[in-house]
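Hey, weird one. I pasted the Transcriptional regulator, TraR/DksA family sequence into the form twice and got a warning about non-standard characters only the second time. First submission, copied straight from the form history:
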Amino acid sequence: MLVHDTVGTGRSQEEIDRIRLALQARYDELSGEYEQAMQESQVLRLVEVGDTAGDDQADSGTKTAERDTAQSLLRTILDRRAQFEHALARLAEGTYGHCEGCSDPIPVERLEIFPSATTCVACKQSRERRAA
C-alpha cells in the first residue's frame, strides 16, 4: 500500500519513506526502459542508414513507421518518468496526495492505482472536458 488511510492528516516518516521508495523504484524502472529504448532507437537508425539500397516506397514507409513508433515510445517513457519525478518533488514538499486543482486529498484508491496522480478524479475530468 503506497498511501495510508490518513491522507491529508499527516504521514509518519516511515510512511513517507515507503512512498518515496515506491515512487523512486518506478522512476528508476522508467529510466532503465528509456535507456533501453534509446539504444534500440540508435540501432534502428544505424540499420536504416546502412540499409537503404534498393528500398521501394513500401520499405521507406515501413522504416518511417518504425522510426515514428520508436520516437513515440521514447516520448511516452519520458512523460511517465517526469510524472514520477514530479510526484517525488511533491512528496518532498509535503503536497503529495493532495489535488493540485482543489487541494482536497486525492482518494487513496486513486493513488494506489496511479501513484503519480496530481489531481482528484473530479478535477481530472474537468480538465479533460476543457481540453476536448
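That's the output from the first submission. The warning seems to come from a hidden character in my clipboard, not from the data itself. Residues 7 and 67 are 43 Å apart (CA to CA).
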